[in-house]
Design a protein that fits this description.
Blueprint lengths: L13 E4 L4 H13 L4 E7 L5 H13 L4 E6 L2
Parallel strand pairs: 1-2, 2-3
């Protein structure tokens, strides 16, 4: 799929599971900045998440101010 249409019925055009890794960070950048889509980023905080991925999530929340993040914690 080359283009994702903007939703007329929702605040978001797309939802993305964001892990804080390189792939999901690039996809978040591409969808929000390059494609100009309204992104809902869904993140799981898990006990064994790497420090790098955790820091990437913090940085993404500062960098992508037009993206809404929802984080859930798993015991």
């Amino acid at each position: 799929m080359d283009d994702i249409p903007r939703s007329k019925k929702s605040r978001f055009d797309i939802a993305l599971f964001y892990t804080g890794g390189k792939d999901s960070t690039y996809l978040l950048y591409y969808l929000s900045k390059v494609k100009g889509l309204r992104v809902l980023a869904l993140t799981w905080e898990i006990p064994y998440i790497s420090e790098s991925a955790s820091q990437s999530t913090v940085n993404a929340k500062k960098t992508f101010q037009n993206v809404e993040f929802i984080t859930r914690t798993v015991n």
